[in-house]
Design brief:
The protein is mainly beta. The chain has a domain of 296 residues. The chain has 5 helices and 31 strands. The two termini are 32 Å apart.
Length: 427
């Protein structure tokens, strides 16, 4: 079957586990055996200290601006990197000549970074890999320019377990400001993300909660993705009490991303929330305001990859299942953002709105419905005929609420997107 390749693109019990809470408070109660303090001008000593850290060590970086090439911590336990506040302790990587990240953390059990700004690395600002009990608090991770020269991820835990990202600010990432990938048990709360391609992305991560955040002024506000060929499957993600708004900016992902099936370069300007091939998702009590292409999109892996069935395994199912969308406030402006007309996927969203209004003059040129569903279900695998076999459950009361894009027929004479939400209303 040839399908349209168009959208290239918890800590569960962790309200605060004892391990996470301890790692946050130990900077106050003296729980670290080895305590080091440095000031500006001691960058060489600091880099050496990072490389030679022993278990149960804290490093305090006093107020001031530090200039680093890169910093690395590996294979130790119970580590705190502490500053005196994001407006006081600033780590500047703008002169970086080597290394893929500003700070790289690998295989650390019990890692906390708190109270500083990281800025202008060539690659990711902080990448935390294969670590446990990770706490990132009061951290600003920014690039001075929001363009394709920025690194991909500002705050980037990957293949981790028990992650808390709290009271952080991310700006300028050419992929995602806050990205949690291939991890288990994560919380992102009370954070802000601005002027990134994606404000925040939860990718192939299970048991995550995202709440009390403000993601605004990005290309797309919030993404929940499951992609093939990765180490684990995601799911069981809750996003609530967030403000996803005014995400209408030009997509400035690196050039190679636009040519990749899965690249974030394919995220359309004006996207509030995008759920791609992810299952067991609950999206509720959010304010999704003035994301002027699509407030919420729910799409299958088939929507972007006609060979998605061949990639199915224990870690990947291209069909989004058990999606519960309820009690969200949603509004859009009177027109698409200007940037959408220059974007290949954006043009398709414009075409969907035009097709709906051409089919039904009574819409009187209404905007794109708030929730867009590609309509590609497990029926493509089972040859079934059920109207809603994968439990997309919607409990919302807004007019102009929903469109089934009918993506299997998009671009053909048989294409007929439908605004009938009846099969998807929660029973």
């Amino acid at each position: 079957m040839k399908l349209p390749g168009i959208y290239h693109l918890l800590f569960v019990a962790l309200g605060c586990t004892m391990a996470a809470c301890n790692s946050q408070t130990e900077q106050h109660d003296g729980g670290y055996k080895n305590k080091l303090t440095f000031g500006p001008g001691e960058e060489m000593k600091i880099a050496e200290a990072f490389l030679s850290l022993k278990d149960s060590s804290s490093i305090l970086l006093k107020a001031g601006t530090y200039k680093f090439d890169n910093l690395s911590i590996a294979q130790v336990n119970h580590i705190l990197i502490d500053g005196e506040g994001p407006d006081k302790t600033i780590l500047d990587f703008s002169a970086q000549s080597q290394g893929g990240e500003g700070i790289r953390v690998t295989d650390v059990k019990g890692f906390t970074i708190n109270g500083m700004t990281l800025k202008d690395s060539k690659g990711d600002l902080i990448k935390i890999n294969k670590s446990e009990k990770v706490v990132v608090t009061n951290l600003h991770a920014v690039w001075s320019k929001s363009d394709s020269t920025s690194g991909g991820y500002a705050i980037y835990p990957v293949m981790c377990k028990n992650v808390l990202i709290e009271n952080c600010y991310a700006q300028g990432a050419s992929d995602a400001g806050i990205y949690v990938g291939q991890s288990d048990s994560a919380i992102v709360r009370k954070c802000k993300a601005y002027k990134n391609v994606a404000g925040c992305e939860i990718e192939n991560t299970a048991h995550a909660e995202v709440y009390d955040n403000d993601f605004y002024g990005n290309t797309a506000g919030f993404l929940i993705f499951d992609l093939p060929d990765l180490s684990r499957r995601g799911g069981f993600v809750k996003a609530y009490n967030n403000h996803f708004h005014d995400n209408n900016e030009r997509n400035f992902a690196k050039a190679g991303s636009f040519g990749s099936t899965w690249g974030v370069g394919n995220a359309a300007p004006g996207s509030g929330v995008v759920i791609l091939a992810a299952s067991d998702i609950e999206l509720y009590n959010n304010r999704i305001i003035n994301n002027n292409s699509s407030a919420i999109s729910v799409v299958s892996g088939f929507f972007i990859d006609q060979n998605a069935a061949a990639k199915m395994n224990a870690n990947y199912d291209p069909i989004p299942r058990n999606i519960f969308i309820h009690d969200n406030e949603m509004k859009t402006d009177s027109s698409f953002p200007a940037a959408v007309y220059e974007h290949h996927v954006g043009k398709i969203l414009v075409g969907i709105e035009q097709q709906l209004n051409a089919q039904d003059p009574s819409r009187k040129n209404a905007r794109m419905p708030f929730i867009a569903y590609d309509g590609i279900t497990s029926n493509v695998l089972t040859k079934g005929t059920a109207a809603n076999p994968d439990s997309l459950c919607i409990r919302q009361s807004q007019p102009n609420l929903f469109v089934n894009i009918d993506a299997l027929h998009l671009g053909t004479k048989a294409w007929k997107p439908s605004t009938d939400v009846t099969p998807f209303i929660c029973k």
